[in-house]
């Protein structure tokens, strides 16, 4: 019983702990919308440097949060979805699984092998565009809220 109470208190504590300064929360994750631009691969490295990864929307709700938040910021935003490994097979970087979300704008993706990384595209009201991975855009990092920046869940 004591253990259960402690567990509940721990859950309660972690749920009100929230996100680090500069990160915004949606459900169980914290996100950082960068103010600087980088290539897709550089963006992933920068996220990793802060114990996070490029954002990987796993549900329609999460994707819509990223899209709606991104259009209130300046610039376009890389996320961690790409078809670098196999053309037109869009996967998450962290586990190589096919993306559960497809929020490409009508007419996208259209860049074929010359565009293998996904950006939230402001002229499309934040919906996805396939872009050249070497292009420099802002980016969104994510970490799980429970991790507190230590280990990615
Ligand atoms: Ca492609």
UniProtKB/TrEMBL annotation:
InterPro entries: C-type_lectin-like, C-type_lectin-like/link_sf, C-type_lectin/snaclec_domain, C-type_lectin_CS, CTDL_fold. It holds the Pfam family Lectin_C. Residues 26-142 form the C-type lectin domain. Keywords: Disulfide bond, Signal. Residues 1-18 form the signal peptide. CDD domains: CLECT. The keyword Disulfide bond applies. PANTHER family: MANNOSE, PHOSPHOLIPASE, LECTIN RECEPTOR RELATED. This is C-type lectin domain-containing protein. It comes from Magallana gigas (Pacific oyster).
């Amino acid at each position: 019983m004591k253990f259960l109470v402690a567990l509940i208190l721990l859950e309660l504590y972690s749920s009100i702990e929230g996100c680090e300064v500069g990160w915004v929360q949606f459900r169980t994750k914290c996100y950082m919308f960068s103010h600087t631009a980088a290539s897709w691969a550089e963006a992933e490295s920068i996220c990793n440097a802060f114990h996070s990864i490029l954002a990987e929307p796993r549900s329609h709700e999460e994707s819509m949060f990223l899209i709606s938040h991104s259009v209130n910021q300046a610039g376009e935003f890389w996320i961690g979805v790409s078809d670098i490994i196999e053309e037109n097979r869009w996967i998450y970087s962290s586990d190589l699984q096919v993306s559960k979300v497809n929020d490409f704008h009508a007419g996208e993706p259209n860049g074929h092998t010359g565009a293998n990384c996904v950006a939230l595209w402001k002229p499309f009201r934040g919906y996805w565009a396939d872009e050249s991975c070497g292009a420099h855009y802002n980016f969104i990092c994510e970490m799980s809220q429970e991790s507190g920046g230590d280990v990615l869940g």
